[in-house]
Design goal:
alpha+beta, 8% strand
Length: 203
């Protein structure tokens, strides 16, 4: 879904909206036995949208629609692995931005090193930069040290995020240590409560 946002904004590419709508319709059929009312309501709106786009859904109710089937010949383990690496890269950069409190308006630059997924990463570099608010992303097979950078080691790649606008790393370290101290204190308080028999009984 995140990657599709880039394609939706790029008029030169084929729109993924129909595929997203079809996927949503399938998910609604999967969820219907467990959440019958809300899925039926959403499905009816989706059915109307399909009709306006020139597509049709033959059945009148989600309740009588065919339950989705799984086809093993459509599994693509390589595609899942590739997507997993892309997701981990985006998540890793976003986590660093959040931990270092880098403003959303500020773009960061980073390098990605991967022996197995460099081609996949390069093909999706526009989407990665869009989703991570970054620029000048470099993809390479060889790991090169970058000064004043945060390194993230992932399953299929290593990321080095440059921090050109942060001059005082000591301040960042102190802030992270303070956050860690608060987390440890909260953990101790919670542990103390859970060891309190009276508290547990009331909970």
């Amino acid at each position: 879904i995140e990657l599709s946002k880039v394609r939706i904004n790029e008029s030169k590419d084929q729109s993924p909206v129909i595929f997203l709508a079809t996927t949503l319709e399938t998910v609604l059929r999967l969820l219907h036995p467990f959440m019958p009312f809300v899925t039926e309501e959403i499905w009816q709106h989706l059915k109307s949208a399909f009709g306006r786009s020139g597509c049709t859904i033959e059945v009148e109710s989600l309740m009588i629609s065919k339950f989705p089937e799984s086809y093993k010949n459509q599994y693509d383990n390589q595609a899942e692995n590739d997507m997993g690496v892309l997701i981990s890269i985006v998540r890793g950069v976003r986590n660093v931005r959040a931990e270092l409190r880098i403003a959303q308006r500020d773009q960061v630059a980073f390098s990605v090193y991967s022996e197995d997924y460099s081609k996949v990463i390069q093909n999706e570099i526009v989407a990665i930069e869009h989703l991570t608010r970054s620029k000048n992303t470099a993809v390479s097979l060889d790991l090169k040290k970058i000064d004043n950078a945060v390194t993230i080691v992932l399953g299929g790649a290593t990321i080095m995020i440059e921090l050109p606008n942060i001059s005082d790393l000591g301040e960042i370290t102190a802030r992270l240590e303070s956050d860690l101290s608060k987390a440890i204190s909260a953990q101790r308080e919670l542990k103390s409560r859970l060891e309190n028999k009276s508290f547990v009984e009331k909970a």
